[in-house]
Amino acid sequence: MPDLTTTIRTHHVRRRWPLTGRGPDVEAILRPLLADGQHGVLLAGDTGVGKSRLVEAVLHRCAVSSCHTARVTCTPADRDLPFEAVRQLLPEPDGSTELFGAVSAALLKAAAGRAIVIAIDDASWLDEGSAAVVQKLVVHTGARVLMATRTEAAATPPVEALRRWGRWSRIDLAPLDRPRTKDLVEAVLGAPADGLTLDGLWRITGGNPLFLREVLCGAVDDDALVTREGVVAWRGGAIGGAPLSDAAAAVLEALSPEELDALRYVAVAASAPLEVIERLVAVPVLERLEDHRLIRLDQSARVPLLRVAHPLHAHTVIARTGALRIRRIRTDLATAMTACGPDDRIRTVQWRLAARLDVPDDEVLAAADEALRDRDVAVAEQLSRQVSTPAGAWRLGRVLVARGEYVEAERWLAEAARELTDPASLANVAALRAVNLFWGFREPRRAFEVIAEAKAAPSADGSGDLLAAEALVAVFDGRADAANEMVALLPDRPPDDPVLAGAIAPLRPQLLLFTGRPALAIAELSAAPTEFPGAWPLMRAMTQACHVHALVMTGAVAQAAETVRRYYHDAVEQGSPAGVGLVALAGGICAYYQGLPEQAATWLREARALTGGHPRFRFRETVLALSAGVAAELGHVDEAREFLDRLGAAGAAPSVADYGAFGEVWALVISGDRSGAGAVLRRRGAEALAVGNVLMATEFLHVDMRLNPSPATAARLRRIAESTDGDMFTLLADHATALAHRDLHEMNRVSAAFEQRGYRGFALEAAATGATFSGGREVNALARRTQRLLGEHRGTWPEWLPAPKSAPLLTRREQQVSELAASGMDNATIARTLSVSPRTVENHLQRAYDKLGIRRRTELAAALAEDGLMVR
Fold first, then answer.
1. Are 469 and 483 in contact (CB under 8 A)?
2. 225 CB contacts (<8 Å, ≥6 apart)?
3. Dihedral, CA of residue 561, residue 562, residue 568 and residue 574, to nearest 10
4. What does the CA dihedral 310, 311, 312, 314 come to, rounded to 10 degrees?
5. 268 with 318: CB under 8 angstroms?
6. What's the CA gap between 268 and 573, in Å, rounded?
7. Of residues 536, 526, 552, the one with CA closest to residue 502
8. What mean pLDDT comes out for the span 836-853?
9. Antiparallel, parallel or unpaired: β 5-7 and 40-45
10. CB 668 within 8 A of CB 799
11. Which contiguous run of DSSP H or E holds residue 624?
């Protein structure tokens, strides 16, 4: 698949949208609507939530169920025109005021004995006369009524008058949740969307389909949506400001001037303490806005906060407010905040700056530091940019490292290094530059030079920031042995910098994983706080990816799969494309180990889409190399070659610290040079061991064993496994030993162990290979497992595997005898039941044992349950 970026075409989003995710809601309405003894259903929901489309779907289902259906759509003008709404039930215009008889006759004639279902859209605008006619229709024709109305209008007199009579059910239609919003977006766009785009759309629209349509149409008009790697993304990364909304504007036009002014204060504040807003707005006005569902009180924070209930309402009211008024509002907010005390430094500084009021530089930088400690990197950047001093350049460079803007970060940090004189500040700048040079520019040598130069200064002794930077570069450059001592010193010399504090979180678990101690890594991560610390989202994701990989290497791949989904949602909430891409990469590794190449390809596609615009992404080569391997396993050889071409074009030297070096291996495998691939793998394995990276050494050598079984390589894997604490290291060594010695019994055990732990791809591969060994009845057991797993396995056949061997089938009589024996019958009873001799029964059982690959009667039940369809 070419790495192209293309725009989304307008007709994709402006066509009629599918009714996605509302199947349960349709059923929830139909049950009471058509139930005996019921008269109707009231469907309530916010504007744009999809009531009319749902009514349409319900009427369609009623018509399919042989009901006669009719629909009335009310408008504000209908309330002042008696019987205007109910006239829509007549086949032709009728000017009389005595409409019940005419409408009743028309409906009964059209129904021809079928049940009648009447739907009323926007029932709150129903006039009293029409409401009375509808009530009579229910009584005299047995009609069922489905009324749809806005939630805040559900208590209007016409609606209440109908509900007071008869037996009605009320159903409140909620906006779409995140999964159903995802389904709708991807159905409309005709392609998957990345997690950040889906999260941004859900946050802006709240799952409201009308708002979602407005946002997507606006995005298409602005050329804001693109596709990368077949994945829809927002151009430039995360979604920016929401577009103007006609639906939101219509809601605002119904407000009184004082209500609109009050909403402006809450919208401009974004979120403000209730006490602050109450100093500026009368409480009864706020209560009316709450009744209109336009604002909400958030009591989850330290102090109660007022927010606009829906982001599009906030954006629309701000867009319809002049710049001078917004400036005055911000001044009022800052004054009220100061008067309330204690001071909320960040909000007050933001509002004062926005109002063009004087704020001392040290106050702005203190607010920026506080925002960064609170992990609000966007606000920290906004505030840092307001200060044009060396201290401001330092703060801005630090924030840009956390945001992944590495080129600009280096510019500002280099400027700060030239201008600052304070030794502690210079040490911090050097540490940040070193980390940025390594992670953003992939220049470990320059990074170590910057650290060494800074450490040479006498004042740098004991700097936790420099130690953290040096440890990070050593760990992720694959220098496990050199990193050990540095990482061990960090608990006593932790960094003060909030960005570097986040950078050290993954170091110890990653080092434990590299050195073959994933179980210890998991134990330490489990004992750590649930929320990984620090202001660098990518390092938070790095810690999470390490946890997933450690679970994989302890034999807990099912738990790893569950954990990676949880971490993925967390990474999306953090809003870092590189962070989401890194967790998606972990998901791809996990799915590969599960033997789910299609799922792995989906994870890796998102990882490529989110990092494709960042050619210096630290794990770009890993993503491409794994993508090539998975594509080859799926039989997509041309796609695999294309990934390998892109990997070669990247020009980065392969590292023994990650999977990027596998690109060269898969290129040789695809070309048919298995021995050449093996030579590369053994060399890489030796390089990894030389720096203490037993994880990657195991990965390299195990693939070599699968391509070129060798006792020497199996022995190396065994020695590695003996120094580790992860079950998978031992199981991979067992697999290698069985391959090297063509040990049929051991291969059967290893295959079963892989399957039991959830590593179904390895289980299939071990079974298929073992079935080619010469030996006894276990060959048949492995062939049977191969056929079963092949039927369950979604991948294709790796080219280095032998063709799958067919397992011998039980004859009909062998099947009968085996089933009776498995049920507990002895041979004599089976013989009498089947009218054969006991010796014949014994012969059938022995042949069945051979074909099933078992040794004793007690194994029959499990074997038959696994293989019961193999009968001829």
1. no
2. 7, 8, 189, 197, 216, 219, 232, 233, 234, 235
3. -140
4. 90
5. yes
6. 23
7. 536
8. 80
9. unpaired
10. no
11. helix 620-633
Answer yes or no: are the C-beta atoms of 522 and 554 closer than 8 Å: yes
Q: Does residue 342 have a cis bond before it (omega within 30 degrees)?
A: yes
Name which of 203, 211, 267, 200 is nearest 50 in CA terms: 211
The tokens describing 320, both together, are: 């319809």
- Cα 206 from Cα 574, distance rounded (Å): 18
- DSSP sequence for 441-498: H--HHHHHHHHHHHHTSGGGTT-HHHHHHHHHHHHHTT-HHHHHHHHHHTTTS--SSH
Q: How far is CA 163 from CA 32, 153, 291, 799, in A?
A: 14, 14, 22, 69
728-755 average pLDDT score = 95
Dump pLDDT digits (tens) for 432-463.
Answer: 999 999 998 889 999 999 999 998 887 666 68
Facing residues of 144 across strands? Answer: 117
Positive or negative: CA dihedral 99, 102, 103, 104 = positive
Residue 429, pLDDT > 80, answer: yes
Angle of helix 178-189 relative to helix 209-221, nearest 10 degrees, comes to 40
Residue 824 in this model has a pLDDT that exceeds 90: no
Q: Taking each helix axis from N to C terminus, what angle separates 662-670 and 694-707, rounded to the nearest 10 degrees?
A: 10
Q: Is the pLDDT of residue 225 over 80?
A: yes
Q: Which of 304, 314, 234 is nearest to 270 (CA)?
A: 314
State the pairing for strand pair 305-308/272-273.
antiparallel
* Torsions phi, psi for 90 (to 5 deg): -90, 145
The number of CA neighbours under 13 Å toward the Cβ of 777 is: 11
Q: Residue 857 is encoded by which pair of tokens?
A: 């009667």
- Owner of token pair 């397992």: 807
Asked whether 766 and 754 are in contact (CB, 8 A), the reply is yes
Pairing label, strands 225-228, 144-150: unpaired
Q: What is the DSSP string of 489-528?
A: HTTTS--SSHHHHHHTTTHHHHHHHHTT-HHHHHHHHHHS
Would you state the structure tokens that stand for residue 444, as one six-digit string?
């470990």
CB 794 within 8 A of CB 862: no
pTM: 0.85
Which of 258, 252, 266 has the alpha carbon at shortest distance from 295? 266
> CA 551 to CA 547: how far, in whole Å?
6
